[in-house]
Amino acid sequence: MWSRLGQGAGPCCCVAMAMLLSPVSREQRGSFSPPRIGWHRKWTNSINQDRKTSLLAWEKETGIELVQINGQRRYGGPPPGWVGDPPPADTEVYIGKLPQDLYEDVLIPLFQSVGKLYEFRLMMTFSGLNRGFAYAKYSNHRGARDAIAALNHYPVRQGCAIVVCWSTQKRELSVDGLAASVSQQELEATLQRATQGILSVTLHASPHQRQAKLAVLKYSSHQAAALAKKALMEGNLRLRGSEMRVEWLHPDLKQKLQLWEERPPASQVQENKRLAVPKPLALSPAVQNMLDHLNTLCGRQCLGMPLFLTKCIRVSPHGWLQFWFQVQIPGYPVPFSGFTWVRQDGQGQSRHEEAKAAVALHMLRVLGSQLA
Fold first, then answer.
1. CB 320 within 8 A of CB 343
2. Which CATH number is 288-370's, of 3.20.20.150, 3.90.79.10, 3.30.160.20, 3.40.50.720?
3. Strand order, beta sheet including 307-315
4. How far is CA 168 from the centre of its chain?
């Protein structure tokens, strides 16, 4: 916490922390004069002054109005002259790897060159630099698709290629640290009373805490999920548990939970009777084509060709192979990684292709729900 504050805060914050953490006598406190707000504003304004001046000149020339609220600077939403309802969710793209001194006077004309913008949001720091990423929402799906096709890996400067891919509207939360005695019915009833738009609730054993549960909550919209997250983090809902953590559901955790549901458990011996290990999923000819289906989906969404890494890490005594995998999709912001199981074929073959097919099926489920 301290290192983060020390690096990211301005001089006023650092002086205030020094006052709190250092012993100061009454005489010293009486003679101390804190820095004025104007001095801090002067310090932040001095950062990247040339680029800020250029941005202000562009705003004046074009008449475009930028509004900064809660750490993001926004154009449009709706833009001037817009008539009708906002565009649907599949019209927004994520823009990453931005130079931190690059602003809307360059970015908005660039992204307007491929389609009509409904909204542009640039994430900002207190110092006036951007946080390295932004979101552009177009008037229709075609505009967003053309932006990905034309501007993904586009060099905004020499040696600075940006990433442009589909924006994922987060609608799922993870709540870790619930009491082991919490039931599905109890949790659903509490959430339906206190939050709006809850679609589904699933309970799992917590992967991080013993004798605790983890809940995955799915909401009807990003706004509904954000309001529920705020209520849960502020402790407004009476849920039994200690040290509860409320976060957006991370793709890696989502994949891990899905894989756990279908992972073959270790064989057990009870009353001298060996229990059979269930198959996670039969690799039928349709599943063998999962790689082709995944490649087709990624191509249709302009995400690029998936790159697979697989490694066999364990062989069970009952004929199962456990594989670790990692899949990188060029146009997707995070890699996929986890574990899966496949059945040995009895002929000594590596079974890597079968592992890839099983992984591709899981990825189609994840990507399908996020891109729908």
1. yes
2. 3.30.160.20
3. 307-315, 320-328, 336-343
4. 7
The two most distant CA atoms of the chain are separated, in Å, by 85
- Tokens representing residue 127 in the block: 């110092």
Express each pLDDT in 248-270 by its tens digit.
888 777 767 766 654 444 433 34
Which DSSP letter does residue 301 get? T
C-alpha torsion sign, points 174, 177, 180, 181 = negative
User: Crossing angle for the helix pair 352-371 and 290-300, nearest 10 degrees?
Assistant: 40
The packing angle between helices 141-151 and 104-112, to 10°, is 110
Homologous superfamily of the 172-262 domain (CATH): RRM (RNA recognition motif) domain (3.30.70.330)
Round to whole Å and give the CA distance between 42 and 156: 29
The CATH code of domain 50-166 reads: 3.30.70.330
Over the stretch 79-132, which tens digit does the pLDDT of each residue have? 999 998 999 878 999 999 999 999 999 999 999 999 999 999 998 888 888 989
Rounded alpha-carbon distances, angstroms, from residue 231 to 37, 189, 206, 246: 33, 15, 21, 10
Tell me the pLDDT tens digit for each residue of 207-231: 877 788 888 998 887 778 878 887 8
